[in-house]
């Protein structure tokens, strides 16, 4: 196992009716900005419940709505202005990954005096993190199980065709309220996205090369098997509490640092997928469902041992040559995504061979030239992957 430091300071408050803890989780005299998306929280009653709780103290509460899926820098800057003008000192994100991610960017940017007037530079620090101290504290009431944003310190923000990951040591939410019932109102396709995003987060940290990280492997396998067990069920019967609760917890645990500690991590599927969302607006999870099988076919030699382990432990594949078993595991994965209503080819989303050069140009622009657990996914490999995905 590799050396690691693991620290996750987010308090999780999980279950039915847990919004009742909200008042006690936010400092008594905080000036709070509630951030939200396009309005789903008004239709499903979540905003009402949040406001009712906040009304139990006489804090000043402001609101900022309109954070779009794949949140835009320009939208978030409007919230940054409100935070600066009103002296807001606590952010409460109520929504899905886009709202939570966008709120992290607001938390970093609003107090960053050294970046006033040149805030967009904060988009380009990548995995090393933004050099801003004393970011604003934030909490979340999460309404979409997918990204893990409720328990990690990452966010993804878009400016033009740049969809950039943004990190800061201070943007772990202080708390996240996860009430599975708050996700009942999701459209089926968003639930399917959540299952696939969680699945791919897990395999980006599991299907790499072995370092004898047994706890990490067994935990990843537990998440993957749970997703296969409950995936279709929770799409078809959204109010089956237990299935949904399991999806919510798997999503959070798949990307909170736990299963990735001490093991190699890939993330090439995500980085190529981000370019596809930035250029063509395809939902995040759908880009992953396209890139993952192709990536595994192209890099089956580098991932051989873990792909065989994955095939055997997740799908019970034990017969045939190694190559046959690997191909069978990839086909099973595609079948699983398809069974959720998520398609797995570039052409399913209207992309053609001629579009590949634009995706490659964006990868080059963003210096995504040495991706994967081995740093061997250069533009040539990315091209091969995209051609395989057609
Ligand atoms: O905006 P509203 O009206 O709230 O509607 C949203 C949105 O249209 C809707 N929705 C959310 N909760 C709902 C609901 N509709 C009904 N009932 C509810 N309870 O769902 C739509 C999609 O929401 P969005 O937040 O965009 O989806 P998701 O949670 O999948 O987040 C995707 C974003 O997260 C980033 C992605 O790149 C993308 O920008 N990611 C963030 C990560 C992280 N922070 O660690 C990791 C991921 O790999 C990912 O890259
Ligand atoms: Zn993802």
UniProtKB/TrEMBL annotation:
<keyword id="KW-0560">Oxidoreductase</keyword>
<feature type="domain" description="Alcohol dehydrogenase iron-type/glycerol dehydrogenase GldA">
    <location>
        <begin position="9"/>
        <end position="180"/>
    </location>
</feature>
<dbReference type="Pfam" id="PF00465">
    <property type="entry name" value="Fe-ADH"/>
</dbReference>
<dbReference type="GO" id="GO:0008106">
    <property type="term" value="F:alcohol dehydrogenase (NADP+) activity"/>
</dbReference>
<comment type="similarity">
    <text>Belongs to the iron-containing alcohol dehydrogenase family.</text>
</comment>
<feature type="domain" description="Fe-containing alcohol dehydrogenase-like C-terminal">
    <location>
        <begin position="192"/>
        <end position="360"/>
    </location>
</feature>
<dbReference type="GO" id="GO:1990362">
    <property type="term" value="F:butanol dehydrogenase (NAD+) activity"/>
</dbReference>
<dbReference type="InterPro" id="IPR001670">
    <property type="entry name" value="ADH_Fe/GldA"/>
</dbReference>
<dbReference type="Pfam" id="PF25137">
    <property type="entry name" value="ADH_Fe_C"/>
</dbReference>
<dbReference type="GO" id="GO:0005829">
    <property type="term" value="C:cytosol"/>
</dbReference>
<dbReference type="GO" id="GO:1990002">
    <property type="term" value="F:methylglyoxal reductase (NADPH) (acetol producing) activity"/>
</dbReference>
<dbReference type="InterPro" id="IPR018211">
    <property type="entry name" value="ADH_Fe_CS"/>
</dbReference>
<dbReference type="GO" id="GO:0046872">
    <property type="term" value="F:metal ion binding"/>
</dbReference>
<protein>
    <submittedName>
        <fullName>Iron-containing alcohol dehydrogenase</fullName>
    </submittedName>
</protein>
<dbReference type="InterPro" id="IPR044731">
    <property type="entry name" value="BDH-like"/>
</dbReference>
<dbReference type="InterPro" id="IPR056798">
    <property type="entry name" value="ADH_Fe_C"/>
</dbReference>
């Amino acid at each position: 196992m590799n050396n690691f430091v693991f620290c996750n300071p987010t308090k999780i408050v999980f279950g039915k009716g847990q919004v009742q803890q909200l008042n006690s989780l936010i400092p008594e005299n905080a000036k709070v900005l509630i951030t939200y998306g396009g309005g789903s929280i008004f239709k499903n009653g979540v905003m009402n419940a949040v406001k009712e709780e906040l009304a139990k103290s006489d804090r000043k509460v402001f609101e900022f709505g309109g954070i779009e899926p794949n949140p835009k820098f320009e939208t978030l800057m409007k919230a940054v202005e409100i935070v600066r003008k009103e002296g807001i000192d606590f952010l409460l994100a109520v929504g899905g990954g886009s709202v939570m991610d966008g709120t992290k960017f607001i938390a970093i940017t609003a107090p960053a005096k050294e970046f006033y007037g040149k805030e967009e530079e904060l988009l380009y620090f990548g995995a090393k993190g933004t050099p801003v101290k004393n970011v604003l504290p934030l909490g979340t009431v999460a309404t979409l199980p997918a990204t893990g944003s409720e328990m990690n310190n990452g966010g993804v923000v878009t400016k033009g065709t740049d969809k950039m990951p943004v990190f800061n040591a201070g943007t772990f939410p202080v708390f996240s309220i996860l009430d599975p019932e708050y996700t009942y109102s999701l459209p089926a396709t968003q639930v399917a996205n959540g299952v696939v995003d969680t699945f791919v987060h897990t395999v980006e940290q599991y299907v790499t090369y072995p370092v004898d990280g047994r706890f990490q492997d067994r935990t990843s396998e537990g998440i993957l098997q749970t997703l296969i067990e409950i995936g279709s069920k929770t799409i078809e019967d959204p109010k089956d509490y237990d299935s949904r609760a399991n999806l919510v917890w798997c999503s959070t645990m798949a990307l909170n640092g736990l299963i990735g500690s001490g093991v190699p991590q890939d993330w090439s599927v995500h980085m190529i997928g981000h370019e596809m969302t930035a250029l063509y607006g395809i939902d995040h999870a759908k880009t992953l469902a396209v890139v993952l099988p192709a990536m595994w076919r192209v890099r089956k030699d580098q991932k051989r041992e873990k792909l065989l382990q994955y095939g055997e432990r997740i799908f019970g594949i034990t017969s045939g040559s190694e190559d046959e078993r690997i191909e069978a595991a990839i086909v099973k994965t595609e079948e699983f995504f398809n069974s959720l209503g998520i398609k797995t080819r570039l052409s399913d989303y209207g992309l053609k061979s001629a579009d590949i050069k634009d995706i490659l140009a964006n990868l080059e622009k963003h210096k995504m030239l040495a991706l994967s657990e081995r740093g061997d996914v250069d533009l040539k490999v990315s091209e091969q992957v995209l051609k395989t995905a057609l």
